[in-house]
Amino acid sequence: METFDLVIYLLPIVFMLHEFEELVFLKPWLERNKTWIGRKFPRFKKALAGTASLSPSAFALIVAEEFILISLATIAALVFHAYYPWLAVLLAFSLHAVVHLVQGLVLRRHVPVIATSVLSLAYGIWGFVIVSEVFSTGEILSCLVLGTIFMAVNLWVMHRAAAAFDRARQ
Questions:
Q1: How deeply is 43 buried, as exposed, middle or buried, from its count of CB atoms within 10 A (0-12, 13-18, 19+)?
Q2: Cα-based distances in Å from 124 to 35, 60, 88, 109
């Protein structure tokens, strides 16, 4: 198996390892720390409250949808050699790992997603080194920008869908 193919295959696996840590540890941590974070960063109080209020099932719904998108992008890359969606997701996911690491630095507290964010970022850097041999700087930057925008919009939509899922279950 070529290294490039291995990097492609690993994306859904690394993603799910990170998301399992979020699913298991993030909500209880948010419950314990949301008041402190809201006082320290009042600008994020509303977003924090929305995320903290999601049920584990609603949060799992978001993760499942993201996993489906990442899996589809991975399949498209491996089967159809349609690499741009996969590259966009890889870069956006790597940026997501950086955001978690920055959160830990800014909060100056342990954030439960730090361990797998380090793993995810190491994978992302390795992947970036490999893809930089295949794609031009312009292609990489375009995929980074478009992937980040797409994933941010998707996350926003999915948080609203998850909240609606929770309301429908009550």
A1: exposed
A2: 33, 23, 12, 24
Angle, CA of 153, 155 and 158, to the nearest 5°: 110
Per-residue pLDDT of the chain (170 residues; tens, 9 = 90+): 699 999 999 999 999 999 999 999 988 898 888 888 888 888 877 777 788 889 999 999 999 999 999 999 999 999 999 999 999 999 999 999 999 999 999 988 888 899 999 999 999 999 999 999 999 999 999 999 999 999 999 999 999 999 999 999 98
Which tokens in the block code for residue 110?
């342990």
d(CA 33, CA 87): 34
Question: Which of 56, 57, 55, 33 is closest to 45 using CA atoms?
Answer: 33
pTM of the shown model: 0.93
Q: How many other CB atoms sit within 10 Å of the CB of residue 162?
A: 23
- Determine phi and psi for 69, rounding to 5 degrees: -60, -45
DSSP 122-156: HHHHHHHHHHTTTS-HHHHHHHHHHHHHHHHHHHH
Locate the DSSP E strands across 85-134: none
For 151, residues 6+ apart whose C-beta sits below 8 A from its C-beta are 89, 92, 93, 96
